Amino acid sequence: MIDADPTAPVVTIDGPTASGKGTIALKVARALGWHYLDSGSLYRLVALEVVRGGVDPADAGRLVAIARTLRPWFGDDGRIRLSRPQAGPAEAGHEDVTDAIRAEEVGQMASRIAVVPALRDALLALQHSFRQAPGLVADGRDMGTVVFPDAGLKVFLTASVESRAERRYKQLMEKGISTILEGLLLDLQQRDARDSQRATAPLKPAEGAFVLDSTRLDIDQTVRAVLDEAERRQVG
Ligand code: DC
Asked: N or C: which end of the chain has fewer CB within 10 A?
């Protein structure tokens, strides 16, 4: 893991599930020419190992052990690979887990294990290591409140739960995955409740956050609003 560069500027984008943070954060990072951290993917990577290994999601010791041995590779091609140095010859090398960590079951498990404080602590250093020149755009739930409290711009991106469910529904349909809108809506509501009501690092706007409701904005308008605010706050 490389050391963080505490002088590199940071823009954080936090918000609920399916608020479009990932898409917006990546586009903002590209526009600024900065690095990008999808912190949710780290929780998803741990969750994938929990699901596959049949690990008890309340076993903090096991969760921390998984987080400590996690060797993710974030490719410029947008793919996420896991390095398995200790694996036997058959599994050695890198496994592309980009699609596997997006499964609904893994998302639900990520939300469940994310309530464990020891796991959150174990993932801190890894998240900090993404802070490198010329700058970082980080998305998640607690990027502005806990992980990068000194960020120059902290965005809280929301959208109504109905519009988020519809967006997720469209995305899944485009991928050929059939699903039920009502089920998705329920899933989002459950996850919102768990992410915002947990005791440790709950989802909430950071102090001084730029709260942006994207219910009536398209992707380009949302990206523009973030970039304008970054300019206004002279970030970077
Ligand atoms: O953003 P996402 O849906 O990929 O995140 C998956 C889960 O991980 C989410 O339900 C809560 C958790 N998470 C978190 O607790 N803190 C973060 N910074 C990012 C994600």
From this structure: N
Q: Do 40-133 and 10-34+135-231 fall under one CATH topology?
A: yes
Rounded CA separation 156/94 (Å): 34
- The Å distance, Cα 114 to ligand 1 centre, comes to 7
Q: Which amino acid is at 44?
A: R
* Per-residue pLDDT, 51: 97
- Taking the centre of ligand 1 as the mean of its atom positions, its distance from the CA of residue 45, in whole angstroms, is 11
Q: How confident is the model at residue 24 (pLDDT cuts 50, 70, 90)?
A: very high
| Cα-Cα end-to-end distance for the chain | 24
pLDDT range class, residue 54, cuts 50, 70, 90: very high
Distance 38 CA to ligand 1 centre (A): 9
Burial 113-139 (b: 16+ CB within 10 A, else e): bbbbeebbebbeebbbebbeeebbbbb
CATH number (3.30.210.10, 3.40.50.300, 1.10.3660.10, 3.40.50.1390) of 10-34+135-231 reads 3.40.50.300
Mean pLDDT in residue range 32-46: 96
Cα(39) to centroid(ligand 1), Å: 7
Q: Whose CA is nearest to atom 16 of ligand 1?
A: 141
Fold assignment, 40-133: Rossmann fold (3.40.50)
Band (pLDDT 50/70/90 cuts) for residue 229 is: very high
Domain boundaries, the chain: 10-34+135-231, 40-133
| Measured distance CA(141)–CA(12) in Å, rounded | 9
Residues with CB under 6 A from ligand 1: 17, 39-40, 43-44, 107, 110-111, 114, 140-143, 191, 195
pLDDT for 235: 94
